[in-house]
């Protein structure tokens, strides 16, 4: 089965992201706006209990953090993706590292860039036009993040929450 780990921001930030995603993100209907902490990976279901135990340890050792959205940016020319750039705060980077070390380690295709995607798989002209307009806009958003979720992918490609983990605690919800 395919899994991933992500933070879901507040409804306010999700609504802002979705105002763009519904027009520019081909995966709009597959998953709500999120910040990926661990890229999608395949794992046999029998390994899931031990994996979840390691994720619980990482969550307990981490602390809530402030998610700061700084600006709109793009991964062009690597991919035709536009996103909301999040600040690389020590607590966010620490959590991402905890979820990607030891028994949770996996190779990454790209370096960790904290962001919330708002457009992807766009053609160059559309990307250039939309990003050109967004670069002129200011975005200042801050919120406290105190949890993250383990997701799994359904057969139709959509993602759903398997379990949510509170930061700095040994319990899950």
UniProtKB/TrEMBL annotation:
A motif (HXTX 1) lies at residues 34-37. Gene3D superfamilies: Cyclic phosphodiesterase. It is an enzyme of class 3 (hydrolase). Pfam families: 2_5_RNA_ligase2. A motif (HXTX 2) lies at residues 115-118. Keywords: Hydrolase. One of its GO terms (molecular function) is hydrolase activity, acting on ester bonds. Its EC number is 3.1.-.-. The active site is at 34 (proton donor), 115 (proton acceptor). SUPFAM superfamilies: LigT-like. NCBIfam families: PRK13679.1. Belongs to the 2H phosphoesterase superfamily. YjcG family. This is Putative phosphoesterase C6I21_12830. The lineage of its organism: Bacteria, Bacillati, Bacillota, Bacilli, Bacillales.
